[in-house]
Amino acid sequence: MFRWASTTRVINGTDGTWLLAAALVAVIGYVLYWLTSQRADFDLAEAVQMIDAGTSTAIVVGGLLFFVISIERRMKRRRALNAIDELRSLAHIIDMHQLTKDPERLQARHIVTSHSPQQKMTAFELERYLDYCSEMLALTGKVAAIYAQAFDDAVALEAVNDVENLTTSLARKIWQKIMVLHTFATPRA
Q1: Do residues 148 and 160 touch, judged by C-beta distance below 8 A?
Q2: Of residues 94, 106, 105, the one with CA closest to residue 134
Q3: Is 133 exposed, middle or buried (0-12, 13-18, 19+ CB in 10 A)?
Q4: d(CA 67, CA 7)
Q5: Which of 7, 28, 63, 102 has the most CB atoms within 10 Å of its CB?
Q6: 69, exposed or middle or buried, with CB in 10 Å at 0-12, 13-18, 19+?
């Protein structure tokens, strides 16, 4: 993480986990050195017990290191997936708001019932509204891509691709409405 307000570099979580791992390895190395320097005469039984204890300790320490190193990735993934899920919801809200904006309602032959939503937009206003909706969907897809820009997690990248595919397909449906709007010979004003 860089703080752009100043030129000093701040240690981020990844640097911190590697520093912790290096410190842990250094402590284990120092303890082994101290134990071997205290006694020079080891018999076979003590050597086997020491190797067994060292192996067990190495497995536990390895598991601990893996947990510490991977916890930051899991936290970043959770934050990214939560943000991407909010963007997916935003894309659905944009789609929901333009669903009643049907260009065929501008035609004179369109039958309006008492339960039909009122269409107060002119053809020009409807085209602008639909264009703005497609632009908001495009921006939503691009913001999702920014969340995974510097994060090489496969799960987060897949979620970003899903949001981009969703926003692209929803924008395509909106542009179909705009094309239908352009085909009308005499739209109602």
Answers
A1: yes
A2: 94
A3: buried
A4: 32
A5: 102
A6: middle
Dist. CA 19–CA 131, nearest whole Å: 51
For residue 100 the two structure tokens come to 């009643």
Return the residue matching tokens 């094309």. 179
Q: What is the pLDDT of residues 71-109, one digit of tens each?
A: 888 888 898 889 999 999 999 999 998 877 877 777 666
Q: pLDDT for 144-168, tens place per residue?
A: 988 778 777 888 889 999 999 999 9
The span from the CA of 57 to the CA of 128, in Å, is 67
Helix axes 44-98, 13-38, angle to 10 degrees: 170
Strand partners, 2: 9
d(CA 185, CA 110): 14
Burial of 148 from C-beta contacts in 10 A (0-12 / 13-18 / 19+): buried
Token code pair at residue 133: 């909706």
Q: Which one, of 41, 40, 38, lies nearest residue 30 by Cα?
A: 38
